[in-house]
Amino acid sequence: MGEGIVRYKYDVWGEEVILGVSWDLLWVVAVAVLILLAAHAIIMAVLANKKMDKPSSDGRRVLRHETIDRLFHWIMAGSILLLILTGVAPIIGLRIAWLNLHWIAGLVLTFVVIFHIVRSLFWQDFKSMILGPRDFGEPFDSAKKPGKYSFEQKGMHWAATVVVLAVVVTGLLMFLQIDTPFWDRTNSMPESQLGLVFLLHGLSTLALVALAATHIYFALRPEKLFYTRSMISGWISEDEMTANHDTSRWSPEEAD
Amino acid sequence: MVATSHDVMPDIELYQPTDEATALALANTLGSDGWLLGGGQDTYGWLKDRNKTPAAMIELTQVDAWKGIKETADGVEIGAVTTITEIATNPLIQSRYALLSTAAGRVASPQIRNVGTLGGNLVQDTRCWYYRRGLDCYRAGGNICYADSPEGLNREHALFGSSRCVAVSPSDTAPALVALDATMVVSSVGGQRLIAAQDFFVGPARDITHMTVLNEGEILTAVRIPNTWANAEFYFEKVADRNVWDFALVNVAAAFKVSGGTIEDARIVCGAVECVPRRLDAVEDAIRGQQRSEQLAEEVASIASVGARPLNYNHFKVPLMENLVKRAIRG
Fold first, then answer.
1. Which homologous superfamily does the CATH classification assign to the domain defined by A66-244?
2. Is B303 helix (H, G, I), strand (E, B) or coil?
3. Among B1, B148, B163, whose Cβ lies nearest the Cβ of A14?
4. Terminus of chain A with fewer CB atoms < 10 Å: N or C?
5. Residue A90 and residue B208: Cβ atoms within 8 Å?
6. What is the value of ipTM here, to two decimals?
7. Beta partners for A63?
């Protein structure tokens, strides 16, 4: 059947129902993301002030991410990458036993997401991640520095929140349809509902691929590498903090 | 599932290569558009129902290099387009690998065996009627297994290894070749690869839209059977609704090396209970070193069905499978 964004099929009764997302979009997303990121890299290279002072990583260190949060981040990253790899494998024709790896990685992601939600609500500074009107002016005014998280970081976080929650919820609904050590499959969801779940899972997967690629790109950008280091070691230097953050809005503890 | 005219045969380009290189080049060039045609006994059903509409067909039965049965230093090699009748009646196969000749003799009907090929019997698609009907099930690229739905009719379907799809391997020769530890010769323009028969078939957990490891451009060109199990004690039995022209409800192929009544080694394989021929390793382990007897057969038969997960209508396959294994062991 003809494909746009959505694939349709006829069910066993001859009724047209949604089958899922058109996986041609995977290539569209991949190419679009590559072009956009390449364009960003070129523009940044052209506009870069070669003599721009880079904040020093030496000196006093301040704590940016606690150990438990770094652990959460890397488990989440690993599970998302494994989910993307195992989910995309059969679509691009790689013939591997992907399903068990996929749902196990999905369960890991679900647990760490629940953990993160609970921890962020009760043990972290939740307000530091809230996007307010002031944040939207930040990219256009170099005098405005962010608190702990920049406008871009908050934007990425909330986009990832929506997409990951969508992929988790739809994934869990699909998980109920297969055999696992915890239950036997029922295969009883009506086809039209199942198709909708597949469609939403597919769309959120496409968004997740785009977000993951974008996140990895920015994590590897030279001017952002100190953030990536902080996700490994936990700290940034005081110099890096004052160059990039408003210390009146974020005053972290000294790192050990 | 689209309403289609059955009045006129769809246009299909037919290629009839007579040499190996041309056939492989065509398979490589046409890729998924080039339907490989052996005896056509699986193919023509698909075409007749208009549920597969290949743009082109590559008929393989005129490639002489892929025909016939020849003795080699290590055993025998059977060309993939050798007919099932030739295999069933070949004196060399009958004398040394009676398991295969017996299994071949139980395939479908005499007419089908006369044109059906070994390669076709091995790589044939599953007979799940929801799938064959052209419904967009999991195996056809959809997102649901109709045979495994609460209302699904699944009397012929799988007991084991049904990851989202409950279709079974319909082949009679496949379990025999797995029991004989055969090797599949798979050719392409890039060369040849040899695959153990046991690894040749794939289940839905690995690839839900294919039943073998064959990739686009690859052709199963021969099957090699080693001397290892030549002249062993064999047992093949197929239970189907009809004695001829039917697919197995369950079949069993077994090879035993017996010395002084003691089973030194054994390979037992069941067909039509999983998407791949199911090797019964646990049963083999249980009987190795034991006296071949009715008592042993009684004791170990139930091991065969451990892990079975019957569907709504195929619970009968569990005792059927156990009984076939029992009969194979007692000989």
1. Transmembrane di-heme cytochromes, Chain C (1.20.950.20)
2. helix
3. B1
4. C
5. yes
6. 0.82
7. A235
